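Two entries, shown back to back:
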Amino acid sequence: MATKGNAPKSQYAPAAHVPLIKSPSLRVPRPVELPPDVHPLPDSIEEYFVYPFTLEPHILTLEQSRRQTVAAYAARRESLLRARADERERRRRDVLRRIAPGFEGGAGVLTPDRRGSRGPEQMVAQGSEGTIEGEAEKREGDVMDRLVDELARMDAER
């Protein structure tokens, strides 16, 4: 065992004489000083929850004017969006009318009308010739007659 005169040296003995330097970035905060007029809370804090009803009309007037402003903005936005959609639809119809004059979007399939064509009541009065099959045969006959006439004219020119 070690005696007092014969005590072993600690491994930290050389570091015991090294001076410690405090970091300049660290500081000890100052103690908080309370102001002299601070009073403790009362036993009941209900007296702090008193609502001043004098503010009520002012708040309600502001809220109503805010709602009116929001409604006006919403109406303006809706009309602007509706105008944009109408303009987009008008442009689309204009493009379609350039391709197919007289085209209306929801009207269905376009059927060509000849300017000298017979009306529907004349077709009914004619009976079987006015039916679709009769018209198709007549058009087919017209095409064949035109083809024969054209071929005959070409032979005559030779």
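entry 2 starts here
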Amino acid sequence: MADTSYTPIKTKDYLSLVGKFPDNAPITVVHMLQFNDVAIYPESSPHASLDPVSGRDAFYHRYIPAGAAAAQEVGITPAETRFFLTTVVNLLPHNDVAWDVVAARRYQSFSDYARYQASEAYTKNAVPHRDAALKNWSLVACLDQDVPKF
């Protein structure tokens, strides 16, 4: 669905962050997602003429397959989904974002993740669907650690 209220989602330059992570250490990226009621594509997008769908459907059926194809094209090991959960309620009063989904995806390294995110295959084929699908989004890159003993 075309809409003039479309605003692309800004991300950091992930390639510039590679040095903050150990070489070849797996990372887990926690995704907090809030979907648009209806996917919003800019009028200039080649996807503007697609049948209208919910943001959730655009994410699941357009973005995820395009992202998987981009990972394959870039030559990285596909991310492992550690969890993918529908949220019910936010329990803290200082953060009233109504996330629809919280997910965690594990990558072989931050370098792989950054290279994938910066690739033309990802930015051209997956990003338009991600941006159309999401109303709000937060990502946190995490390193594994031993669970503290209690």
